[in-house]
Structure formats: structure tokens, C-alpha cells
Design a protein that fits this description.
The complex is a heterodimer of chains A (490) and B (378).
Chain A: H1 11-21, E1 26-27, H2 30-33, E2 50-52, H3 57-70, E3 74-77, E4 94-97, E5 104-108, E6 113-116, H4 122-129, E7 133-134, H5 147-153, H6 160-163, E8 170-176, E9 182-186, H7 197-201, E10 210-217, E11 219-220, E12 224-232, H8 235-247, E13 254-259, H9 260-270, E14 280-288, H10 290-306, E15 311-314, H11 318-329, H12 331-338, E16 341-344, E17 347-348, H13 354-368, E18 372-377, E19 382-389, H14 396-413, H15 432-435, H16 438-451, H17 480-483
Parallel strand pairs in A: 2-4, 3-4
Antiparallel strand pairs in A: 1-2, 5-6, 6-10, 7-11, 8-9, 8-10, 12-14, 12-15, 13-14, 13-18, 16-19, 17-19, 18-19
Helix pairs in contact in A: 1-3, 8-10, 9-11, 9-12, 13-14
Chain B: H1 6-19, E1 23-26, E2 41-44, E3 51-55, E4 60-64, H2 69-77, E5 81-82, H3 109-114, H4 122-125, H5 128-131, E6 132-138, E7 144-148, H6 160-164, E8 173-180, E9 182-183, E10 188-195, H7 198-209, E11 217-223, E12 226-234, H8 238-251, E13 255-260, H9 264-272, E14 279-283, H10 289-293, E15 298-302, E16 307-311, H11 316-326, E17 330-333, H12 338-341, H13 350-363
Parallel strand pairs in B: 1-2
Antiparallel strand pairs in B: 3-4, 4-8, 5-9, 6-7, 6-8, 10-12, 10-13, 11-12, 11-15, 14-16, 14-17, 15-16
Chain lengths: 490, 378
């Protein structure tokens, strides 16, 4: 699974790295490197030759230059909270950790911009621009995850149905390419001249280079926020409510759904007083201008009741709102209480296919005799089925992974995607050919080769099979006779 | 040339690629932007004009690139939805296209994407890069490649849709586009406030942009030494929001502040001003508003996005003076006589330009898509 480079003596390279960042910031002992053997997806592990913690763009550049000269691949890592193995080290490669680069470099609120280093946490961006502004993309891991990682993964979050994803908020990047070249993509202004390299880079999972500075757009904090949780007998009924709400023209800040298993597990951990045994809980949050928000919120309450909810709880204050969110965000960790192990899936479907895909997941769970809990961003059809298993039982992990893969097949059959926000990484690259044909993958490779012809930036991720860049196809040169219109080459 | 299917388009491009014939993709022919490439064959998307899917419940659609934007919007409007992009109508009818029937002379979805054109809705919804969720392109070696999908959230694979947005037909032919749709507002209303002091307007725009107004549009209209800010709301409470904004405008020192409830005409006019005989687009900042007004040009601005469209006299001296006054901001020549369009682009970061050149080599190996016409002679 893990791409290998031939074992060879990396001591000269490591010595060079020590000279760049200082001895104390280059880790080579196995006990130090164990910290970095996995990202948030623990089933993959690899020990790199060294982990390097640069403090500045210039140091990142020098580290990458040294890797390029030695022809040694590197992987960038932010907080290591990714869920697709995107920051999985390469054995005998170099891991470049951005955790020391956590300065807020510029705060230009008059222009609604902030520039940060990649190691700054997601939540720290909103803190830096508070109280009048905030940074909308809010992955569940926002307290720890880094902006550099968010850029690599094009992270979403609960509020992206209304506000969009990381890619909609990054307006400029300083990037170190795999040959050590320092380039600026985009900038503080929008629509810069040339190709939208910024748009291509965000979400490229560390395969096009390492971002060392990030210019972000921030937006005014909404005037008003209203949140409710509605309970339904089934996910089907809750799904109906989601469709009704969206069809009515309301664009909620967030619409999150949990099924019966997820409600029970979360309640055990968060103690929000949720009724155990109900089929589904729907968390709906509206934000915006006071009057508009109030009118729309009343509409949402009515729609939930019309779709069969007899228990709609409106958050009375910020404390209660936080409790609703705590319960939703507890869903993943809480699963550990009811199952020794679980896999988190990250499929996407067109929202209207929700009922049939949930039925398909139920049928698969029954076929495999396993418990699957469902937690999802219902507004944008991003499902996070949690496949529960006990890794101590022989073969169960493999069966769980197979089940998890078949859930993705169901998502693709419905016209969806294999990943909504966690990324392809190593975990899903085998599924890429189900979603993309050979010409599509070939086009991806063209982009990759334009940025990283030597293939040193996070190789072995995203693309299903290793590919080399090769020469640029010969550029056709026009014969002077043709140019003069005297001959044609057909 | 006018291929009727994506496959036919790819095959045609492969043939043209082998022959080394320069190509200029053409949608509705409403935007003669960028330098002219002598002898380029026009490959039109008029034969690729089918609305393939409108998934009403999912707020998505799949369109062939040659679908006229107005036709797509008519389909969406009938279901209370919109593609949230509203570029200005063409300044002048495309000469050769006029007599040729349906759709000619109307901007197409593919053309708007390739030219990264946008209108007042940019303020809230971004540009095509923010609305396209999937795309299919045909390349000069005959490859037909797809990226993204048709769901609104998806991070599988590289985002070629963004790479092709604003590529001005220099990488390949966009043949199909999947887009995200938004609900059509039940009601609209606008607040307008005037001022003839650029600094006052700039400060008012900054203050309004910093408020959580949730406006659909926030525009600057500046001409003949006087200007106004226009704020449009699209919601059930639009008129109330506009009234509250008028009060804020007064407090910010703007004059002649008024609510306009029947505001379609106002915004049609504003959009039309974005096109002209000689239009320079400036990628700047919110706080550059006053400097942009002081160039003496007529200006349509989206201050919160930092984008401004300057209407200038069609002569090289006027354009050079505006560019010099706004340096180091990047200026792009849009509508203009061919002589002025020969030098259309500002220079990107040198390192980024090198990557762009490599992208051009890889995606257009035959080097037939408007060769030499893009940034840095790409």
C-alpha cells in the first residue's frame, strides 16, 4: 500500500536538514518518529527517514531544495488530523511538519483579509478577526486542524452548505514547489491575471507543493443565529424535512442529521437530554439578518412539524445552542463507547437520493451483520456512515472495510462522489477509477506534472496507480510555408 | 466549425492539433477579449447547446457549454431557481452571429466561464469558479476529460473547473459544465445613496461591507465626477432590509438616499455600464475605491470583491495612464479595439507564470488554443 523508495543512505541529506533548521528540529529516532507515523486515519502507518520542523518559508524552501537535490520525496503535515491518510509519511522520505509556523502575519480587516502561516489552527483565524468577522469553513476538528491542512484538503464543515468551502475563502498562497521554487498563487486581490493556479492548488492534498503563507477572506459575523433540533421517527421523515426546507428557498447555515444509533451514542457522552430510541435527529441552524432569520426560522419549525416531528427543541440561548452542537460533534468520538473500532466513511450523494441510499446502507449493514451509524451534513448530501466493528475478531476489519467500500459504490450509483471533505489520500485512491476514467486521470496527471515534474511532493496519494511525468509531448512547430498560407498539413 | 457532440469536438481538435491550426473557441461571440490570433479557426459551441439535466430537488444542473446563459436561466427561473451569475449583456451584437438564428449573440455558459465574467451577484455568490461543480473539456490531442461531478460537495481529484475558469480558451475547449444553483429571491429591493467625494464613498462602502447585511449585491456606480452606492437585497424582507440600509447610508454621510422597490431597471443599467468601447478591469481592494474613482474614468465597482470596471476613452494613452495610476494593481483590458487588446494582461508572479507555461504545454500539447495570446505570451 505504502509507496517505497529504495533504501539508501540519507545521512548526508539529514545533515543538510539539520544545518537548515537546527539539530533540535530534525527528528530521526524511531520513538520521536512514531508520533508522526499516522495522521487521523490510524489504520495506515509509516515511519519517515526524518521529520523536519521548519520555522519559516525560507526554511521550508531550503528543506525542499535539499530533498530535490537528493531526489528524496517529501510529505507535508499540518496538525495530522486528516482522515484519508493524506499526511501519511513515506518510508525513507522526509516529513515536513508545519506546526511551528503559526504566526498571524497580517490583519487587514478594512479589506476583510488575513494572512497566516500554515500551522495556524482553523479556530485561531476566527479568533484573530473577532468579534466583527469570522472565517466560515469549520471542520469538526477546527480546534486543532491547521489552515495548511485545510488548504491541502479543501476542508468543509457543518456550515459549508451556506458559506462554501476552504477554496471559496483562500485568495492567495505562497507555495514552495517541489524543486524549491517559491511562488505566489493569487494574492490579496481577486481575479489575478493568468490561470487560476490557486483554484487548482486548494484541495490538491499536498501533491502540488507546500503552502507557506495563506491569504484568507473573512466575512462579517451574522446579526442573528437560531438553532433547533427536531426529532423524527425515521431518517426517511427527517430527510423529507430537509428536502422541504431546501425546496422552500431557505438556505440554512447548517442542516445536520443523526440516526438512532448516533443519537444514542452521542447522548451517552454529551447528556443533552435527547430522547433515546427516536429514529432521527435533525439540527437546523439559520443565521443572517434578524428579521429574515426569524421569518425563515418559523417556516422551518412549521416544515419540521409537517414532516412528522412532534418534538422540536429551539435553543433558548447560546449555552443551549452549544449543547446541541456538542452533541452533534460528539457523534464520532462517542461511537468509541459502543464499538471497539469504527471506520468513518465520507460519501456524497445528490440530496434527493437520501432515502434510497440510506435504505441501501441499511441493507448492506444487514447483509454484513454489522452496525452502521449515520451522521451527515444533510444539506449538501455528505454522508458520514460509521461502520462499527471489533478489530480483535479475525477478519472483521477487512469485512468492515469492504462494507465501507460498498457504501461508496452506492453513493456513486446515485450520482455522487467518493469523498466530500476528507480527501482521497491513500485511503480512497483505489476507488478513484470508479469515479474517473483513464482520460480524466490523465488530465489530473498533466496538472500534477506541471507543478511537480519530478514527482517528489506527496507521491502515492490521490492517483490510483503510480505515474511518471515523462517528457512534454513535442510542441508542434509550424513550417514557414504553412505560416505563409502556401501549404497545409492535412 | 461547429461540432455537435463532445466526442466530435475532441476528434475535431485532434485533427486541428495534428495540422497545427490555431483555434479560437467561440460561444455566443459576445466578448472579443484578449489579443487577436491571426488565422485562427473558430470552433463554435453552438452545436453543443443542450440542457442535459436540471435536478430541481438537488439545485444542480448539467449544461453543454454552448447553452445560452439566458436560456438556462429561463429554465431555472421556471422552477424558482437561478444560476447565480449575471454578467452584463453584450455591448454590441456580435456582427457575424446576428443572422444565424437562435442563441447567436447571447453569452453562453461556457463563454462566461472561459472569460470569468461576472455581474452584481458576484458580491454574494462569487464567480463561475465558485458555482461550477464539474466540467468536461476537450484538448488538442483529442482527449476528452472530466473533473468534479454533479454534487455540490466533492473533493475527489483535481479541480480542473477552476483551472479552465478564466483561461480564455487557451487551454482547451470547455464542452460541458455542471453547476450549483440557488433559490430565486421571493422579492428584491435596493438602497441607493449618492456622494461626489470618492473618499466618502470609499469609507461608506467599507462600512457597509463590514456589516452583516446579507445583501445580494453591493455596487459602486461612478461617472462624471459623482457616484452612488447600490445595495440590493433578495429575500422575503427585502424592502425592510433596504429601508434599514438607507438609514445607515444617511448616517455614513451619503446623500439622496432612497429605497427602490421596483429595482430591475436600476440593475440592468448598472450591468450594462460594465461593457463599452474600452473597458479595463482592475483586480484591487475594497480600500482602493477612492483611487479608482480618481482616475477620472466611469466606474462600475464591486467594492467588497475589490473589482472595478473602468470605462475609458479608446486610446492607448488613456489606458496607460489608468494603469500607471493604479499600479501595482493588476489591470486586464476587456472590451477594446484590437490594437489595445494586443497588450491585454498584467504580468503574474514570475514563478507562477512558469507553472502556467508548463500547464499550457501539458494541456495544449499541439499549442493550437489561441497560441501566444495569454499572459506572458503563453
Amino acid at each position: 500500500m505504502v509507496p517505497e523508495v529504495p533504501a539508501r543512505d540519507l545521512a548526508p541529506l539529514v545533515a543538510e536538514l539539520r544545518a537548515v533548521v537546527g539539530d533540535e528540529w530534525v527528528y530521526t529516532h524511531e520513538h520521536q518518529l512514531r508520533t508522526y507515523e499516522s495522521d487521523g486515519l490510524l489504520q495506515y502507518q509509516a515511519i519517515p527517514a526524518a521529520a523536519v520542523l521548519p520555522a519559516t518559508s525560507e526554511q521550508v524552501q531550503a528543506v525542499v531544495r535539499a530533498c530535490a537535490r537528493a531526489d528524496v520525496p517529501f510529505v507535508a503535515r499540518g496538525a495530522g488530523s486528516g482522515l484519508s491518510g493524506g499526511a501519511l509519511p513515506i518510508a525513507d522520505g522526509i516529513l515536513i511538519v508545519t506546526s511551528r509556523m503559526k504566526r498571524v502575519l497580517e490583519l487587514d480587516l478594512a479589506n476583510q483579509r488575513v494572512c497566516v502561516e500554515p500551522g495556524v489552527t482553523n479556530i485561531a483565524v476566527s479568533s484573530a478577526v473577532a468579534p466583527d468577522f469570522f472565517y466560515p469553513p469549520d471542520p469538526s476538528s477546527q480546534i486543532v486542524c491547521s489552515i495548511g491542512g485545510n488548504v491541502a484538503e479543501n476542508s468543509g464543515g457543518a456550515h459549508c452548505f451556506k458559506y462554501g468551502f476552504t477554496t471559496n475563502y483562500v485568495c492567495g498562497l505562497e507555495v514552495v514547489l517541489s524543486d524549491g521554487e517559491l511562488v505566489v498563487l493569487g494574492g490579496r486581490e481577486l481575479d489575478p491575471p493568468g490561470y487560476d493556479l490557486l483554484g487548482a492548488f486548494v484541495g490538491s492534498e499536498g501533491t502540488l507543493g507546500i503552502a507557506t503563507k495563506v491569504w484568507l477572506r473573512v466575512v462579517p459575523v451574522p446579526e442573528s443565529v437560531r438553532t433547533l433540533v427536531a426529532f423524527f421517527d425515521s431518517t426517511h421523515a427527517a430527510g423529507e424535512a430537509v428536502s422541504e426546507i431546501v425546496q422552500s428557498g431557505v438556505v440554512p447555515g447548517a442542516i445536520e442529521m443523526m440516526d438512532k444509533v448516533a443519537i444514542e451514542a452521542s447522548e451517552q457522552m454529551a447528556h443533552a437530554g435527547y430522547p433515546v430510541g427516536r429514529g432521527a435527529a435533525l439540527l437546523v441552524e439559520l443565521d443572517g439578518a434578524e428579521q429574515e432569520c426569524k421569518t425563515r426560522f418559523d417556516q422551518v419549525v412549521a416544515l419540521c412539524e409537517r414532516c412528522g416531528s412532534d418534538d422540536v427543541r429551539v435553543a433558548r440561548d447560546e449555552t443551549e445552542r452549544q449543547l446541541f452542537w456538542k452533541t452533534r460533534k460528539a457523534a464520532f468520538p462517542a461511537m468509541g463507547r459502543i464499538s471497539p473500532n469504527y471506520f468513518v466513511q465520507d460519501g456524497v450523494i445528490p440530496r434527493t437520493k437520501l432515502p434510497e441510499v440510506l435504505e441501501a446502507i441499511d441493507a448492506l449493514a444487514a447483509e454484513y451483520g454489522m452496525v452502521v451509524a449515520n451522521v451527515f451534513h444533510a444539506g449538501d448530501g455528505n454522508l458520514h456512515p460509521l461502520v462499527c466493528f471489533d478489530g480483535r475478531n479475525a477478519g472483521e476489519a477487512e469485512r468492515a472495510e469492504e462494507l465501507s467500500g460498498r457504501i461508496l459504490d452506492a453513493c456513486l450509483e446515485a450520482g455522487g462522489s467518493i469523498t466530500g471533505e476528507h480527501g482521497v489520500g491513500v485511503d480512497k485512491k483505489k476507488h478513484m477509477p470508479k469515479m474517473f476514467g483513464e482520460p480524466d486521470l490523465d488530465a489530473f496527471q498533466r496538472l500534477r506534472c506541471a507543478f511537480d515534474p519530478a514527482g517528489l511532493a506527496n507521491p502515492g496519494k490521490v492517483m490510483p496507480t503510480p505515474r511518471l511525468c515523462g517528457e512534454v509531448p513535442g510542441v508542434y512547430r509550424q513550417h514557414p510555408l504553412e505560416a505563409a498560407g502556401l501549404a497545409e498539413r492535412f | 466549425m461547429r461540432p455537435d457532440t463532445p466526442e466530435a469536438a475532441a476528434e475535431l481538435l485532434r485533427t486541428l492539433g495534428e495540422a497545427g491550426r490555431p483555434v479560437r473557441p467561440r460561444g455566443g461571440g459576445t466578448k472579443d477579449w484578449g489579443p487577436v490570433v491571426e488565422g485562427a479557426v473558430e470552433v463554435e459551441t453552438g452545436g453543443l447547446a443542450r440542457i442535459l439535466e436540471h435536478n430541481v430537488g438537488d439545485f444542480t444542473a448539467v449544461l453543454e457549454a454552448g447553452v445560452p446563459l439566458a436560456e438556462a436561466q429561463a429554465e431555472f427561473t421556471a422552477h424558482g431557481q437561478m444560476l447565480a451569475i449575471d454578467p452584463a449583456p453584450s455591448a454590441r451584437k456580435a456582427g457575424r452571429g446576428e443572422a444565424a438564428g437562435r442563441g447567436r449573440g447571447d453569452a453562453t455558459v461556457g463563454g462566461v466561464m472561459a472569460a470569468n465574467d461576472s455581474g452584481p451577484l458576484r458580491h454574494r455568490y462569487g464567480s463561475m469558479r465558485d458555482l461550477v461543480v464539474g466540467t468536461t473539456v476537450a484538448l488538442s490531442d483529442g482527449t476528452l476529460a472530466r473533473s468534479g461531478g454533479k454534487v455540490i460537495k466533492n473533493v475527489a481529484g483535481y479541480d480542473l473547473g477552476k483551472l479552465f475558469t478564466g483561461s480564455f480558451g487557451t487551454l482547451g475547449l470547455i464542452v460541458r459544465v455542471a453547476v450549483r444553483l440557488h433559490p430565486l429571491a421571493p422579492d428584491t429591493a435596493s438602497a441607493v445613496g449618492a456622494g461626489d467625494d470618492p473618499s466618502l464613498l470609499g469609507e461608506a462602502a467599507r462600512a457597509l461591507a463590514a456589516k452583516p447585511l446579507e445583501a445580494d449585491c453591493l455596487d459602486l456606480d461612478w461617472r462624471d465626477g459623482a457616484g452612488r452606492l447600490l445595495v440590493r437585497f433578495g429575500s422575503a424582507a427585502a424592502a425592510d432590509q433596504a429601508r434599514a440600509t438607507v438609514a445607515q447610508m444617511r448616517a455614513l454621510g451619503l446623500s439622496e438616499c432612497a429605497v427602490i422597490e421596483d429595482d430591475d431597471e436600476l440593475w440592468m443599467t448598472q450591468r450594462a455600464h460594465q461593457r463599452g468601447e474600452c473597458v479595463l478591469k482592475v483586480s484591487a481592494r475594497l480600500t482602493d475605491l477612492a483611487a479608482v474613482c480618481r482616475t477620472g474614468a466611469s466606474v462600475v465597482g464591486r467594492p467588497a470583491a475589490g473589482l472595478y470596471w473602468l470605462s475609458l476613452p479608446a486610446d492607448a494613452g488613456a489606458v496607460a495612464a489608468a494603469r500607471a495610476a493604479l499600479a501595482p494593481r493588476s489591470c486586464t483590458m476587456l472590451d477594446a479595439p484590437p490594437a489595445l487588446r494586443a497588450d491585454a494582461w498584467a504580468a503574474p508572479d514570475p514563478g507562477a507564470l512558469a507553472v502556467m507555461a508548463r500547464i499550457k504545454e501539458r494541456f495544449d500539447p499541439a499549442r493550437i488554443f489561441r497560441p501566444g495570446s495569454f499572459v506572458g505570451g503563453i
